[in-house]
Amino acid sequence: MKLGVLFSGGKDSCYSAYLAKQEGHELTCLISIFSENPESYMFHTPNIHLVEKQAKVMELPIIIEKTKGQKEEELKDLEKAIKKAKDKYKIQGIVTGALHSVYQALRIQKICDKLDLECINPLWHKDEIEYLNELINNKFDIIIIGIGAEGFDESWLGREINEDTLKELKKLKEKFGINVSFDGGEAETFVLWCPLFKKRLRVSKCKKIMDGKYSGRLEIQEIKIV
After folding, report:
1. Which of 120, 155, 187 is the last residue of a domain?
2. Which of 5, 96, 130, 159 is most buried, by the most CB atoms less than 10 A from its CB?
3. In angstroms, rounded to a whole number, what is the distance separating the alpha carbons of residues 213 and 151?
4. Within 10 Å of residue 45's Cβ, how many Cβ atoms?
């Protein structure tokens, strides 16, 4: 099936696209929403502009739609982007990185139903520890670019997700009850390399910005294709 990928540049959208391809689907294009609202109910915002670099190393076209990020209203912009993908690239379905968010899954499904498209959610209700182990075993190079939960501090920004990181996340889960896959908004991620990429990305300039005791972001100012 020809699929468009709802793409944020983070681990969930990258891994769901990878799984869809493993299942024999054709990844036809990426679809990204640039929201002006950092507290968007639907869309990832940190470093979202860098999805264009990821699209380049994936050698896939990307459709970008801007939105004010107003609750529910932003869904009209998402529908517009998905319709563009259907019209231009003849996609038959959408692949999402939805894990547990019923709010997001139901709204994307409703748009797909309206446009007569399949909605594929490879990560739906996947065990969080199993999920991170799969990312590590499949050699995904992922860094943390946003934090927003008790237990996280500035040192987490820019940290790679690997076996040592997973051990620390398990401790935070025991102490604070976090979801180690960050489905509760505990953190945001960015993928520098995965098996879908033809070349690697490397951060060459960045800045850590803390907005509160447990909240902050890694602002990537320069990234290179290597």
Report:
1. 120
2. 5
3. 9
4. 19
Euclidean distance between CA atoms 67 and 49, whole angstroms: 13
Give pTM, 2 decimals: 0.95
Q: How many domains does the chain have?
A: 2
Strand partners, 218: 208
**Strand positions, DSSP E, 72-127:** 93-95, 118-120
Which two tokens mark 64?
Answer: 């970008």
Q: Is the dihedral of CA 57, 49, 182, 225 positive or negative?
A: positive
Q: Return phi, psi of residue 141, to 5°.
A: -100, 105
Is residue 81 domain-shared with residue 116, that is, in the same domain?
yes
Tokens 């050698």: give the residue: 59
The per-residue pLDDT for range 147-202, each reduced to its tens digit, is 999 999 999 999 999 999 999 999 999 999 999 999 988 999 999 999 999 999 99
What is the side-by-side order of every strand in the sheet holding 93-95?
A: 62-67, 26-35, 2-6, 93-95, 118-120
Burial of 146 (0-12, 13-18, 19+ CB in 10 A): buried
